[in-house]
Design brief:
Two copies of one chain form a homodimer.
Chain A lengths: L8 H5 L3 E5 L8 H12 L3 E5 L5 E2 L2 E2 L13 E4 L6 H10 L4 E4 L9 H17 L2 E3 L5 E4 L4 E4 L14 E5 L2 H13 L4 E6 L8 H8 L7 E6 L5 H13 L4 E5 L4 H11 L6 H10 L3 E3 L2 H11 L10 E5 L2 H13 L9 H10 L12 E2 L6 H12 L6 E6 L4 H12 L5 E5 L4 H6 L3 E2 L2 H15 L13 H8 L13 H10 L7 E4 L2 H11 L3 E5 L13 E5 L2 H18 L8 E5 L5 E10 L3 E8 L2 H6 L3 E3 L5 H10 L14 H20 L3 E12 L2 E4 L3 E4 L8
Helix pairs in contact in A: 3-4, 6-7, 10-16, 11-16, 12-13, 19-20, 22-23
Chain lengths: 702, 702
């Protein structure tokens, strides 16, 4: 890993000196409110800038940036949009490090605002000033003492800080998240809102935050992702540093994707591609806002586990059953305690005891506090479990204090179910949830992250000779964009994609001779740029053997095509080996607007295709990554059992996947590849068809 | 619908007079606590019973039930288990209406407790006294003034009452649910915990509650269901009365099912059967505890909608996108407002306005309260939307008060997203959620319930003649439990299940003659009680045509079977029409431990079976219900498109499903039926195989 260069983000996000344009004595204005926030948190030099007032909130005010007595790291701006350009010019001139631009009225406000935003972006870039915003609510960095935001108001308590970093494009939702996160006990050390992202975007912020030593978990709410390469770099670095990155993506539905595009004025890629990229690079996708905050809470103490065994401790059988239920449904184990450990628990419990110490442990509501504490201690030190969960009531303050002690005296992750938040648990940072499912999902996420297998890194250098050789197959007549199958197969061969044995012939005699060389049953197919979908017009004959049969089929096929596609220009016939298939798969290439090339692999066959999910990988990826993706398809059923893919078959399919990925990386002008089917049997996998579409093709060609 | 007879539950659950055995002056004991709860809520005659004290909590105490000055409706018991039997005897003698038995130490405490519970159950039943418990925490009925429970303590405020009824077997979890429900603004009018269910169980309570006029929605947490018929009756009645019934089922995972069985000492059926029965009878299955409470909240005001159009109103684009996202993902529509309605909104908004009035409406954070209220009013009266959602912050008390007014001045359902609960919203019963997904899921459930199509009722009277006729096919030699295919097909024919044309023959000559009569290609199969799985031993030959081919196949098949299954006693050969199949389905019968016979239908074929879900129906059901179930399989794809099932094919498959259901209802001794495949093509569907297993078969026969 090369050393991280913050590109000036450190002056922007961890400044030693701050000036604020728009700082105000009116605490009901944004300028007054944000300045008060900065003032109450910041220990460095702070300069209010005001056109008339000589003092703002007790500090000496300056009339403009040019009038400041020193250079500053950060300038916060909260003035009307039309005044911003001139301020940026001064900031550049004064060699300011960064700007937080709170003002709205830019790209979100129509063409004029968009032009203004572009001018400012260019001036800041040229001048080396990093900018957050516009149309954002600023950021907070508790360890650095910077409350340059209006997510929280000055009358709310200053957050205690901590290991959780939160990033959101949306200011309003970011404020919601910050407020709710702090209410629910999240130890928020950072919050950054990026707004219109004229310069600094979510990806860049994550890349910066992952390097900060106090950050143990990162949460991001993303509407659009402007910088996929930096996002992936941040994700990779988070894996290296053992810091979970959790992301909540807006625009999962078509309707919302449209709304996000209009509201952020940027491109939104396909959501299944986004999910696939996250999976590939170890980013955790949250499926709801509360899930994101829940995961922040379970990860904030940095505890890890080696195994998935949970102890469920309750004073009620029903709650225990539900917690055990949710644990099992989320892939955790609720093992029965061994007899000796059960006996130790029974020894400290009252008699008669109508509960259970097996697991779930049901101490019954009749238990005395001391006995409960003793049982909890036994469980906390048990070698038979890795994680703990229990239930409490928000009113039971003493019980909560005991749970805090339990938490502090064990290394095991603890997740508490409570009717509501309890102050002692919140203060101590004990992960607390109001629903059994959220308890289990959080512990399960912790287990999965703790025991993840990192994706092997894969670098890629284009092979110049291969590029040159394969380019000839992509030279089509003017107006053609879809390769004929025979051309596609030749291209595939350059990329190590196993194709069926085949010959391109131009007469029945040649076909017979080719079939004899190939051996066994053959397929014949008409080659024509006009007939990419051969079976629609009878341009294919299957399972032929013997000279007579091949001659007859050749003849009848050409007659049928002449009748059904009279205008097609034919360019010979492909004679192809008919390989056996126990199973058919498909592998393809699509290009996402955000993440670029993506290789898809899935089951073939009409009905099965409808039912089964496709797995997507972003090239470059290793053979190992391709094998892992295959192994996860259909919850692993594809590689299991008597009829599942053998080791050799998996190797060959993985090679096809890598080949398609390399093809995509070396030829930008290929917009789509579809290999359907890949025929698999007896340790072999062959591309039995090939659809390759070049960029610029009209929609109908796909 | 026949008039509901409460069977004495009214005296138990809505008493005019109450006595309590175990009432105590010690407010830290269960007896003291529950008595204080009753005393603070109850307006009827109340009698503490105490062996020594002459006064309990200020009321004259009596030494025993026999000493009471009048008969009472309800006796609450909170004494040690060993003393309970004598008290029940007195209650019977005094013609008490019902007993709430809070004590534990019964079935949950081992063999002795189980015997004691059985004796008490018998005495109460014989004496006509209805019993809730034991091992429960009692119930609350706010409208009736009965707080006979320790779910809440006397120092907590008396719940304000309302339209939500909650039922839970588990006392501990019931207390958790009650506490959390009240905290989150649920208008709880009833809570009943049923504990060990020695008499009154969840189903009976639901059947009672659904008839109570103040109840608008019922929530149930169930570990085991003891009375499926009553549960179904309650569900049907809830549909009739337009009262949603929401159920959260514990024991969904195998591990938890085991825990529930040991903890409640009763049978737990299969969870997919439970879900199917709920779907069939319109019961909403909640997937988490919070989801159940969330649905209680959206249904508590009884509002309904005709359509699925949601208005999303926010002061932040990001929040709007997320709310729109979740709405769309949950099947709701977020329509763009027509131009004239947008213009009306723009007229009341400030300029310049950088937000959107399309929907999601983004008023931006700069909006003034009056303008916001005006926009809200316009949306509330818009003919373009059916439901409303918006976002607020828990600190914004004035905004919450405005939302209460909005809620009270519209018939449209309103769901509010808030960082936390807000007192004004809670007091007014405005559904409030802390997560956008929960907002959308709740509104979507309201829409689905409002627009549900009720399952057509289906009654069933056994056909005595058919029973007699079909019984002969079930008479097997001693020790045999699996019908031969030919026998199964004859049984099927009695139930209107279309079977392939076929003849049962005993020589190659007969086979040839039979094939000629049947026509076309045939299949031949060896019949033997020892060979239910014919293809494993080569006892089947497919696609035969012509005398020669049939003779050869007949011979080779018998030779192969003689070699591979030398001990099988053969009973002739089935010659069967080979019908075409564009698609293969399966239909089967299984018996659930709780719900009895269930008919399953799904796709056939090895891989597809693994991928696709099966739909289950509980007989009796109508052809219409069967068709609906088919229509929902694979999200409707089975009946769509060019290759989907045609109308005639659907009719025939539905007839097979109904036939299997009737078969199950008329023959208790059939434990399993499997028709695999049903071959479907050209408007026809035929049972092409038949596996019928009788009760008592060893496991291996299935």
């Amino acid at each position: 890993m090369t050393t991280y260069n913050s590109n000036g983000l450190d002056r922007l996000l961890a400044p030693q000196s701050i000036a604020m344009v728009g700082a105000s004595n009116n605490l009901y204005s944004i300028g007054g409110l944000v300045f008060a926030n900065i003032k109450r948190s910041f220990n460095g030099s702070l300069f209010p800038i005001h056109p008339k007032d000589t003092e703002v909130q007790g500090l000496t005010a300056y009339s403009e940036i040019n009038a400041l007595p020193q250079n500053v790291d950060l300038v916060v701006i909260a003035v009307a949009s039309h005044a911003v350009e001139a301020i940026i010019e001064q900031a550049v001139a004064k060699r300011v490090g960064g700007v937080v631009l709170l003002s709205s009225g830019f790209a979100e406000a129509g063409a004029e605002g968009m032009a203004l935003q572009a001018r400012i972006a260019e001036k800041a870039r040229a001048g080396g000033v990093r900018v957050i915003g516009p149309n954002c609510i600023g950021y907070l960095n508790i360890a650095g003492g910077v409350m340059a935001n209006f997510a929280l108001t000055p009358d709310e308590p200053l957050p205690p800080g901590g290991s959780v970093a939160l990033v959101s494009q949306s200011g309003g939702f970011g404020s919601y998240l910050t407020t709710k996160g702090l209410l629910t006990g999240l130890r928020l050390g950072w919050f950054v809102s990026t707004g219109n992202e004229l310069d600094v975007n979510i990806a860049a912020v994550l890349r910066y935050l992952v390097e900060q030593p106090e950050v143990k978990v990162m949460l991001a709410f993303s509407e659009t992702l402007r910088d996929p390469e930096v996002f992936i770099a941040a994700a990779r670095r988070a894996q290296e540093l053992d810091k979970p990155l959790v992301i909540l993506k807006a625009g999962r539905s078509e309707a919302a994707a449209k709304a996000a595009m209009s509201h952020t004025a940027s491109v939104v890629g396909a959501v299944n591609v986004f999910d696939a990229v996250c999976r590939q690079y170890g980013v955790i996708v949250a499926h709801s806002m509360e899930e994101m905050l829940d995961l922040g809470m379970i990860f904030q103490d940095g505890r890890r586990v080696k195994n998935n065994r949970v102890a469920v401790m309750t004073t009620s059988g029903g709650t225990g059953v539900l917690l055990a239920d949710e644990s099992a449904l989320n892939g955790l184990d609720v093992p029965t305690f061994p007899a000796d450990e059960q006996q130790k628990m029974l020894d400290v419990l009252h008699t008669p005891f109508f509960g259970s110490v097996a697991n779930p442990i049901d101490t019954t509501a009749a238990i005395q506090p001391d006995a409960l504490k003793a049982v909890q201690q036994l469980v906390a030190h048990s070698p038979s479990v890795d994680m703990l969960t229990t239930v409490t009531w928000a009113r039971a303050i003493e019980a909560a204090k005991d749970l805090v002690k339990l938490y502090q005296n064990t290394d095991k992750p603890l997740a508490v179910l409570s009717t509501d938040l309890v102050e002692p648990l919140k203060e101590a940072g004990v992960p607390t949830y109001t629903d059994p499912q959220r308890v289990a999902k959080s512990l399960a996420a912790l287990y999965r992250f703790s025991t993840r297998t990192a994706t092997s890194a894969s670098t890629f250098t284009p092979n110049a000779q291969r590029v040159a050789r394969s380019r000839q197959h992509l030279e089509l007549p003017a107006g053609e964009f879809v390769l004929m199958e025979a051309q596609g197969k030749r291209l595939f061969a350059e990329y190590g994609i196993a194709v069926t044995a085949e010959e391109w012939v131009h007469s029945a005699d040649q076909a017979v001779a080719a079939a004899a060389r190939i051996g066994g049953k053959v397929v014949i197919k008409v080659m024509s740029y006009q007939l990419p979908h051969k079976s629609d017009v009878g341009a294919i004959r299957l399972g032929l053997q013997g000279d007579q049969a091949i001659r007859e089929a050749y003849q009848s096929m050409l007659e049928e095509v002449a009748q059904r596609a009279p205008h097609a220009v034919l360019d010979g016939v492909l004679v192809q080996q008919m390989v056996p298939a126990r199973m058919e798969l498909t592998c393809g290439l699509q290009r996402d607007e955000v993440f670029g090339p993506m290789v898809a692999v899935g089951l073939g066959g009409v009905l099965v295709e409808q039912l089964a999910e496709t797995t997507l990988l972003r090239p470059p990826f290793s053979l190992e990554t391709a094998r892992q993706a295959l192994g996860q398809l259909l919850q692993g059923r594809l590689v299991q059992g008597r009829r599942g893919l053998s080791h050799d078959e998996q190797e060959q399919i993985a090679a096809i996947m890598v080949g398609v990925g390399n093809l995509a990386l070396e030829h930008d002008n290929i917009s789509e590849v579809d290999i359907n089917p890949i025929r698999v049997d007896a340790g072999k996998a062959y591309a039995a068809d090939a659809l390759v579409v070049l960029a610029g093709a009209p929609e109908a060609a796909h």
